[in-house]
Amino acid sequence: MSTSSTVAEVVSGYADHLRSRDVSEHTARAYVADVSDFLDHAVHSTKLRQGSGEGHLTTASGARIDIAAIELDDLRSWLIALDDAGAAKSTVARKIAAVRSFFAYGVSNLGVPNNPAARLRTPKKDSRLPTVLKPQQAADLISAAENHRTGVTGVGRRRKGGSADNGMDTSGLMADDSSTSDPAADDTTTGDSAQHGKNDPLDAAKRIRDAAILEMLYATAVRVSELTGLDRSDIDHRASMITVLGKGNKERRVPFGTPARRALDDWLAARELFTGPHSGDALFLGVRGGRIGARQVRELVHRYGSDDPSAPDIGPHGLRHSAATHMLDRGADLRQIQELLGHSTMSSTQIYTQVSMQRLQDTYRRAHPRA
Fold first, then answer.
1. Nearest residue to 193 (alpha-carbon basis) of 182, 210, 183, 206
2. What CA–CA distance (Å, rounded) separates 293 from 339?
3. Which is the catalytic residue, given 41, 49, 317, 359?
4. What pLDDT was estimated at residue 187?
5. pLDDT at 149
6. Residues 6 or more apart from 30 whose CB is under 8 A from it?
7. Active-site residue 223, yes or no?
């Protein structure tokens, strides 16, 4: 490491290292933010500012910090500050994993003498069960998008057999696609826009897309990043299967049912309304023509979920939890659910047995006369 290195340069090099190890983009961003947070904390230590100089880095403000002099107590000081700020145990556990990874990188690439984070103890996560929908609430959530497009003409009309008819003039739609600088705002179908759904072809197509997204999230129990990463070529229409790229770049095949297949057919017929120079083969598109992002998917799940005030407010991962729990309730084998979800270990899947048992206990207490 050069004595003139800056914190930004070192953190950037660490980010490149994470990407080279096939760490997911979400995890890489979180780890980089966590390491930056720790270094911001450490720069206030007088000891680290007055180190030997071999590991000195310059911050954006011109301050200097000797990362080679960082010790276990410096990390503990940071963790105490996080605890005082009310950080959740899961957040602290991730931050510990991030600094462990960073200092391991530092030992191999920056001349740091040892990994002080290796001796940190990871706090046990709170044994909080995931929030799930009841089966009828899940059906109602999906129906919310379906109902919003009831009576829409010209876009994705179901023919006999479930295919879609897309006989509309698409001229002028791409001009509307770039009318705002906020892609997420372009992708919202609420307020006045919702009132014009029958007359606005693009708005109608968005609802068809939203229905397909909700169907696929629940039918396949995929992660939101796996859904947004899907290409049209990942769909095996004959077998009703998709190929998803999960954590650690592991591929798996996931089945989907007839309702999801019909919703996909409708969307694929309407997809051309969104296509642009950057669409590529992406399955789900935003109105600007690019691959839809995880944020837009989260927003639409919350938006349609708000139609049912009795249901808990969940995001895409809540639909994943719900699908796994409902399958277990209906007799699916835990090992099969593990394969469906792409869990590397059974321990991650076993939490659904606890959710299922909790639901059984709640039902028993409500229904049994001597509970």
1. 206
2. 25
3. 317
4. 60
5. 53
6. 94, 98
7. yes
Asked about 343 being catalytic, the answer comes back as yes
Of the residues 223, 262, 321, 326, which is catalytic?
223
Show the 3-state SS of 120-153.
CCCCCCCCCCCCCCCHHHHHHHHHHHHHHCCCCC
pLDDT value, residue 202:
85
Do 321 and 342 touch, CB atoms closer than 8 A? no
Q: Which stretch of DSSP H or E encloses residue 252?
A: strand 251-255
311-340 as b/e: b if 16+ CB within 10 A: beebbbbbbbbbbbbbbbeeeeeeeebbeb
Are 301 and 113 contacting, i.e. CB atoms less than 8 angstroms apart? no
Collect all residues with Cβ–Cβ distance below 8 Å to 104 and sequence separation of at least 6.
115, 118
Selection from 301, 307, 329 nearest residue 135 by Cα: 329
Would you say the C-alpha torsion 190, 194, 199, 205 has a positive or negative sign? positive
Contact 264, 219 (CB under 8 A): no
Of these residues, 95, 320, 321, 326, which one is catalytic? 320
Identify the active-site residue in 247, 252, 291, 302. Answer: 247
> Could you confirm whether 94 is annotated as catalytic?
no
Told to judge if 247 belongs to the known catalytic residues of this protein, a careful annotator would answer: yes
Among 134, 135, 158, which Cα is nearest to 146's? 158
In the chain, pLDDT over 90 holds for what percent of residues? Answer: 52
Nearest of 153, 125, 145, 92 to residue 302 by alpha carbon = 145
Residues 6+ apart with CB under 8 A from 354: 129
The whole-number pLDDT of residue 123 equals 86
Among 264, 158, 283, 168, residue whose Cα is nearest residue 226: 283
State the catalytic residue, choosing from 41, 157, 198, 343.
343
Mean pLDDT, the chain, as a whole number?
A: 81
Residues β-bridged to residue 254: 242
Q: Tell me how far apart the alpha carbons of residues 296 and 294 are, in angstroms, rounded to a whole number.
A: 6
Q: Is the pLDDT of residue 251 over 50?
A: yes
CB 115 within 8 A of CB 156: no
Mean pLDDT of 352-357: 79
